[in-house]
Amino acid sequence: MKKPILILFLMLLSFGLSAQVTTNPDTVCMGATSEMYQVPSLGEGYTYTWTVAAPGTINSGQGTNQIFVNWSAAPAGLINNAITVTATGPAPTFCTSAPITINVFVLNIAPNITAVGPFCEDDACVTLVATPAGGTFTGTGVTGNQFCPATSGDGTFTITYTYTLEGCTYTGTTTITVNPVPVLTPIQHN
Questions:
Q1: How far apart are the two ends of the chain, measured CA to CA in Å?
Q2: Is residue 128 part of a domain?
Q3: Quick one: 170 and 119 in the same domain?
Q4: How many domains does the chain have?
Q5: Where does a domain end: 107, 138, 169?
Q6: How confident is the model at residue 12 (pLDDT cuts 50, 70, 90)?
Q7: Has residue 190 been placed in a domain?
Q8: What confidence tens digit (pLDDT) does each residue in 90-145 have?
Q9: Distance (Å, whole) CA 72 – CA 56
């Protein structure tokens, strides 16, 4: 009878826990204020001790199997040994687990739009270009990745480029000026 229970436990362990494994390093967005980290609960009476590398701070959850971390003060780049957790068993043994550690990569992307213009209202549409490629342009006079002065009319317009990677969304902007085309009245003879 013990062997089937052990097999069932191992099956639950492999299916239940493998779905919760986070890739190391974990990627968070620049400015993230409440990222959740957790380990599977070991049962009643266990206490979890979390350590978060500065400048990260624990918002809540210390002592439990789940914490929320504020990374908003962290610069872009890799933070080695960013989060460590141990579990201490209930009385009377109070045995402590080996620590589990994960690195965190703070992702920051600064999209850049290649400047265009100024234009006249009757100029042809131009293709907008930004890096990294693959984002979306929005704004007055924009259709897809084209800016059309005839559609925008005259004025100064803010064009926004939005790029998403690893669940993080970043934006960049540029301004485009479109000048009115002068209109002459008919020639008069005096």
A1: 115
A2: yes
A3: yes
A4: 2
A5: 107
A6: very low
A7: no
A8: 989 899 999 999 999 999 999 999 999 999 999 999 999 999 999 999 999 999 99
A9: 8
- CB burial readout 82-100, b (16+ within 10 A) else e: bbebebbeeeeeeeeeeee
Residues in contact with 15: Cβ distance below 8 Å, sequence separation at least 6, in sequence order: none
- The pair of structure tokens assigned to 157 is 């317009």
Q: Does 12 map to a domain?
A: no
pLDDT band at 21 (very low <50, low <70, confident <90, very high): low
Which CATH number covers residue 86? 2.60.40.10
Tell me how many helices (H) and strands (E) the chain has. 2, 16
Query: Same domain, yes or no, for 99 and 45?
Result: yes
Identify whether the C-beta of residue 48 lies closer than 8 Å to the C-beta of residue 86.
yes
Segments forming the whole domain that contains residue 28: 22-107
Q: What is the pTM of this model?
A: 0.72
Phi first, then psi: what are they for 180, rounded to 5°?
-70, 150
- Using alpha carbons, select from 36, 74, 37, 41 the residue that is nearest to residue 55: 74
Average predicted confidence (pLDDT) for the chain: 89
Instruction: Return the closest-CA partner of residue 73 out of 51, 86, 54.
Output: 54
Do 27 and 40 lie in one domain? The reply is yes
Query: Quick check: 106 and 116 in contact, CB under 8 A?
Result: no
| 6: in domain | no
